[in-house]
Amino acid sequence: MNEIDRLDRTEGEKMFGYIMLTNKKKIYYEIHGEVHLPVFLYLHGGPGAGSYDFIEHQGHRLSKFMRIIAIDQRGVLRSDSIEDNESFGIFDLVDDCEAIRKQLGIKKWGIIGHSFGGYVAVQYQLHYPENVTSLLLECPMLDLGSSARSLIAGAAQEYERLGKDEKIKDCLTAVNIMGTEEVWGKCIEFLQDLEEHKDNLYVYGEDKHFFDHLVEKSGIPQKNWERAANHQQKLYQEGKVFESLLPHLDSITCPMLLLKGKYDWVTSKDQLTAFSNGQSNRKLSIFKQSGHFPRFEEPALYASVIREFISDK
């Protein structure tokens, strides 16, 4: 494991700063919550979304009963960018998490992972099971091919609403593509074609474009938000993200909570089935007024469900 240096400071009730790897890349992090509380690492989705929105919507709630460490993953938002000629893949993210744990002197922690962050969280647990107390997965993507087919089915419904019959036929053909990388590519095509209407697949309530509004008001330069593109591209080029984690779930023995928006398309039915297999260490909570972001659409309930879960462990 690489040696790392810390550059941090405090502002009000939060500590924030950078953890520097020996390759001189800095990882941005924030800590919220008192030192005696159980520690949880937050891993954002995207890939490349950053942790800003999670802290904005849940930091003040969750920090009352847990100590949250939220990071912008390598190459994302406030962390240093990834260069075009730089090697980067999924296990770099996993090892970055372990480096942060060691640097902060944390013996064990729980992991909260949203969407793609759920994939990273499970990979981390599979590689460092002795360091994980529990997994909290919010609308996770644990099988990208399955998520892609589910999203394409959602896109077909959106095209039906828009009266685009040819696009509906294209979607019905695409859901039968077996190759994960190929079906994900088709999914991206549909999402791009839907433009602003794609947000209907992710947000159930009226504020469909909440994330765009958050970006505008964040005060973080636009060029930082754009770092997500290279982060994503390199993960897709490496290809590990196209491997399903569903066959590995049965090897996880720590407590697991899956927080699922009723109208979320990312966590598909077969992913729910694989998770809800009757094992006593797993709990499923459905948010009836949410899409892909229960933490935003039902914030009070989200915090309450998590509080109850970690209190029962």
Automatic annotation (TrEMBL):
GO terms for molecular function: aminopeptidase activity. Gene3D superfamilies: alpha/beta hydrolase. The keyword Hydrolase applies. One of its GO terms (biological process) is proteolysis. Keywords: Hydrolase. It comes from the Bacteria. Signal peptide: none annotated. InterPro entries: AB_hydrolase_1 (IPR000073), AB_hydrolase_fold (IPR029058), AB_hydrolase_sf (IPR050266), Peptidase_S33 (IPR002410). GO terms for cellular component: membrane. Residues 38-299 form the AB hydrolase-1 domain. SUPFAM superfamilies: alpha/beta-Hydrolases. Belongs to the peptidase S33 family. This is Proline iminopeptidase. It comes from Sediminibacillus halophilus.
